[in-house]
Design a protein that fits this description.
- The chain has helices spanning 71-77, 116-122, 184-196; strands spanning 6-17, 20-26, 36-40, 50-53, 56-57, 61-67, 84-91, 102-109, 126-134, 150-155, 162-163, 177-181, 201-204, 220-223, 226-229, 236-238.
- It is mostly beta strands.
- The chain folds into two domains: 6-91, Translation factors (Elongation Factor Tu (Ef-tu), domain 3, Beta Barrel), CATH 2.40.30; 102-241, Nucleotide-binding domain of ferredoxin-NADP reductase (FNR) module (Rossmann fold).
- Strands 4-3-7-1-2-6-5 form a seven-stranded antiparallel β-sheet, covered by helices on one side.
- It is globular.
- One of its GO terms (molecular function) is metal ion binding.
- [2Fe-2S] cluster binds at residues 211, 216, 219, 231.
- Heterotetramer of 2 PyrK and 2 PyrD type B subunits.
Length: 246
C-alpha cells in the first residue's frame, strides 16, 4: 500500500523552545483531535515520513508541534515560509468529542501535550481541567489556559507549579472522563488510577510507526481483543481495552 499525499507550502515554522518547533500550513482542514499526519520534506532519505500529531486547527491553518529527535525532524526544523512539504492525512482514530461530556480531565506530559490543545478547544460542552507535567519549565501550554477551567502544571525540578509528577495531585474520581497522552509509564499509572475509581479513560498511544497507514503492522499494541494497529485503530484507545506491560 502506498501513501497518498498532497504537496503544501509551509506558512510558518518557529522555534517554541529548545528542541521544540511549531510548523503551520495554510488551508482548511477537517480533522478530529488526536489524529495525525505524515510529514515529509525530502525525496529519498530518510526513507519514512514522520508521523506528527495535530496540535491546533483554525479557519486558516493547521499546526504541528514536534520535538527534534532525529534526522527527519531535524530536516523539518529547517523549513521556512514558502517551502514545500508533503502531507498525508488526517490519519488514525482520534478522540470522539461528541461522546465526551461533563467534567473532564486532560492529563499529559512532555511532547504528549501537543495534541491536547486542539482537544481542549473542541470540548465545548464540558468543564475541562488540564494537567500537564514536564521535567522543567515549559512554554508549550501557554495558549491552553483560555480554553480550560483549570490549568495545573507539574515539573520534576520544581521550576514551575507542583514539584513532582503530574499524577501526584490528580484525583480521577472527580471526573466523568479522563483523556491522556504522554510517556507510557505516566499513561499506565493514569489507567490504573482510573480503573480503581471506575472512571473511563481514553489514552493516545505513542508508538514508533513505519508506514503510518496500517499496512506494515510495526506499531501494533496489545488489547483484550487482540493486537491493534496504533496508526489505524488508534492512536486513541479506551484504557480498559489495552493490555499494558509496565
Amino acid at each position: 500500500m502506498k501513501e497518498k499525499y498532497t504537496v503544501e507550502k509551509v506558512y510558518e515554522n518557529v522555534k517554541v523552545e529548545e528542541g521544540i518547533y511549531k510548523l503551520s500550513i495554510k488551508g482548511k482542514f477537517e480533522v478530529k483531535p488526536g489524529q495525525f499526519y505524515l510529514l515529509r520534506a525530502w525525496d529519498i532519505e530518510p526513507t519514512l515520513s514522520r508521523p506528527i500529531s495535530i496540535h491546533d486547527v483554525d479557519d486558516e491553518k493547521i499546526s504541528f508541534l514536534y520535538s527534534v529527535v532525529g534526522r527527519g525532524t531535524e530536516i523539518l526544523s529547517k523549513l521556512k515560509n514558502g517551502d514545500e512539504i508533503k502531507i498525508t492525512g488526517p490519519l488514525g482514530n482520534g478522540f470522539d468529542s461528541e461522546i465526551i461530556s461533563g467534567k473532564v480531565a486532560i492529563i499529559c506530559g512532555g511532547i504528549g501535550t501537543a495534541p491536547m490543545l486542539y482537544l481542549a478547544k473542541t470540548l465545548k460542552n464540558s468543564t475541562v481541567d488540564f494537567y500537564a507535567g514536564f521535567r522543567t519549565e515549559s512554554t508549550i501550554v501557554d495558549n491552553v489556559e483560555k480554553y480550560v477551567n483549570k490549568l495545573e502544571l507539574s515539573t520534576e525540578d520544581g521550576s514551575i507549579g507542583h514539584k513532582g509528577y503530574v499524577t501526584d495531585n490528580f484525583k480521577p474520581e472527580e471526573y466523568d472522563y479522563v483523556l491522556c497522552c504522554g510517556p507510557e509509564i505516566m499513561m499506565y499509572k493514569v489507567v490504573r488510577m482510573c480503573e480503581e475509581k471506575n472512571v473511563p479513560v481514553y489514552i493516545s498511544m505513542e508508538k514508533k510507526m513505519a508506514c503510518g497507514i496500517g499496512a506494515c503492522l510495526v506499531c501494533t499494541c496489545k488489547t483484550k481483543s487482540g493486537r491493534k494497529r496504533t496508526c489505524k485503530e488508534g492512536p486513541v484507545f479506551l484504557g480498559s481495552e489495552l493490555i499494558l506491560n509496565e
